[in-house]
Design goal:
The complex is a heterodimer. In chain A, 53% of the residues lie in helices and 12% in strands. Chain A is α/β, with parallel strands linked by helices. Chain A has a domain of 150 residues: ATPase, nucleotide binding domain (Nucleotidyltransferase, domain 5, 2-Layer Sandwich). In chain A, helix 7 runs antiparallel to helix 8 and helix 10 runs parallel beside helix 12. Chain A is globular. By secondary structure, chain B is α/β, with parallel strands linked by helices. In chain B, 52% of the residues lie in helices and 11% in strands. Chain B has a four-stranded parallel β-sheet, with helices on both faces. Chain B has a four-stranded parallel β-sheet with strand order 8-7-9-10, with helices on both faces. Classes of the chains: A alpha/beta, B alpha/beta.
Chain lengths: 443, 435
Amino acid sequence: MRVVIGVDLGSTTTKAVVLGEDGRMLGRGITNTRSNYDVACALAKGEAVVATRFALFREELRGRLPDGPAGDAIVREVERCFRLEQYLGQLAELREELRTVAEPATWHRFGPELGARAVALADRIGREAPAAFASDAPRGSEFFRDLVGARWRVLAEDPATRGSVGFDGLMSCFDKAIVRVENRALDLSFARHARPAVERYIRESGGIERDFAHALGNAAAVAAATQIVEWNVVGTGYGRSKLPFRKEQIRSEILCHGLGAHRFFPGTRTVLDIGGQDTKAIQVDERGIVTSFQMNDRCAAGCGRYLGYIADEMNVAVQELGPMAQRATRSVRINSTCTVFAGAELRDRLALGQKREDVVAGLHRAIVLRAMSLLARSGGVRDEFTFTGGVARNAAAVAALHQLVRENYGEVTLNISPDSIYTGAYGAALFALRGAEVPAAVA
Amino acid sequence: MNDARGASRDAIPKEPSMARQKEMLGAHYHRLAHATELGLRSAYTFVPGNLTELLLSFDVLPVLPEINALQSAMRGKSADFIALAEKLGQSEDVCTYVKCDYGMLKSGNVGPTGERLPRPDLLLLSYTGCFTFMKWFELLKQEYRAPVAMLHVPYQGDGRVTAEMRDYVVKQLRKVVIPALEKVTGRRYDEDRLKELLARSAQAEEDFVWVLRSARHRPSPIDAYFGGVYYIGPIFTAFRGTQEAVDYYRILRGEVEARLAAGAGPITPEGPLGPERYRLVVEGPPNWTSFRDFWRMFSDEGAVVVASTYTKVGGVYEDGFRHDPSRPLESLAEYCLGCYTNLDLPSRTAKIARYVQEFDADGFLVHSVKSCDSFSAGQLVILREVERRTGKAGAFLESDLVDARYFSASNVKNRLESYLQMIEQQRRGAVSCAS
């Protein structure tokens, strides 16, 4: 099958979208690897191709799966097992790196036990993994580094597990090893992990009919064996110049977000994208062609990283900020011109007895106020208005935006796609589809 | 010496005019360094509203602090000067031209070419719309204890110059500026000599205007922003009225005529520009600390600037104004009143919209600098209004004049590329709609 791929190299995450020849979205992939753009690009593309093969897997099972939600649930469960297999594979790589980096000669100040302790921690996390990936287990993040890092930190803080090595020794060792793992193109492919995932699913489910189990295995084999030809690839995003693509295969994120948002919601005339370090206000015409745009200049305060910094300051996961802000009873005024000063203000407000929820609500409002300024500069908010980027997943930011748009521009339709974080990659893939000419490579 | 592309800079062809202007500037700074031995006086004054012919008629050499600041920036010296000025109490928000100049002064007043600048015999404060000029000269006055002659040029608040405004400036020339020059030089005002200088100015102005107008051709033989400030326009300030300037613009015109005949584009620091892909109009000053990189961001994409407003800060000639020897002081007054910095927002908007149309531009770009409130105030209003009038999309870039801390190359490049791709997308959209 021939596909086109759009890759969006953002400052926080890298996203990829795979489209079929008919323009249908077949798969999406995301990674938060930032160490190396080539690796990030390969990982995101690889993930999107995995998702595409899952679409094939499902297609192959047509007629064998129950209709509706029951069929969806089976595929979802196999995919969950697949993620666990990938995680275990990555963990095995991490374990090897830990063994290497924990050489006593390098880390002698932490004592001779460091290597053994580090490997023991990795083994323990591996044993816990099936429970962490259980169907009903909450996971704060989809990313390997976040998942393993959060657990590592908890275990390293526990005197029983850290032993004489100490917290600093285990964390230093982990930091070095995880960077090495992130800089390597690991085999996370469907071909490698699909069969073990299906076997795990069959084992865990129990009582699955032999025929159906056989069909699952066959479908996985067919999906893995299907040749996927990269017909064309277009890159966008902040790191696009680092992509090993020809100039014609690079598009600015402004164009891609405009086109992607317009394709998600064809009534779109104004787009707001709040990404990691860029906020973009984009006006598009009825064809999705950009007519005007504004981006933050000189400073990235008020972008997604602002929330990341605040989350670090508060020692919570960035995903927790939105729900926390939604529990606010009032909004505290916080500046949005400097991230570091906002962090200082946060501590000051908390010291004065303000509620965490109210302060965090103020931070969300600060971000949106800054975005409102860019929107005004770009030509205002026109109906329909589409909000994209990672921050569009944050319900508190969405609520603040809704309110401020209503106050300033009246009622407009506010669109947010569940795939909003992929908008730039989707736009890039649409450009790839338009420019597709020559087969480039086989995935 | 090799640049980032690996090409030898020495191998890049330079037009004779480029070498000539460099020699002229070098000689000017050398003359300034030896002004006392040569029996010449010097006056510090500003580019907009400069009275070069009047100064030269008294054998007074102009020293232009903005030019010193931008030259320092292009030579990589502004960071230290700005740091020193801040250390001496100038806040981060002060115009960086001021801080760079003040830092240079406090570092021994060694000019961009490495020779010391003379102490001013006169501070000729021509006020043409920039309030900071007054504060700047306050600093210079405290430093040098030199006499100040203030020329107050009324702002074109209604978008036009009236006879009363002109008479008001002429009166100041007669009552304030000329007496001040007579006092510091011990010489009488010589109107015949001024007329000779003005006649040469008018001659050079004809060629200057012709060169700027040549950008109406496709491809444009000049870059009217980067090239405009680099070697086409600057000569206009310290040399206006001289035979050197007349000769310089004659040479320049000849080169441009030759490029026109050959269908060639502008010469950039990287060599001749490749195929012209985008024609742009630019509003606002350039960044000087990364001048060459900034220009390359345009030239790499085949973008040429066909008209700019910053090249009109030293005078607006396209509407027919020329220095007129038959009305010496009146025409000097009209020159000052007509400078770009003295224009109101509607006039600036109309001018940019006209440039976009007359030069058949694909779009226009505002380069907003942190330093300059006079330029920045209303630039977004201009942007929207020009978009409305021309139907062409505008872009907005932000950095600074001579403070390298405010030039984020990757961000500027990102926005410029996005803008040019937007123009390309609109072209393709228009084509697909038409078909």
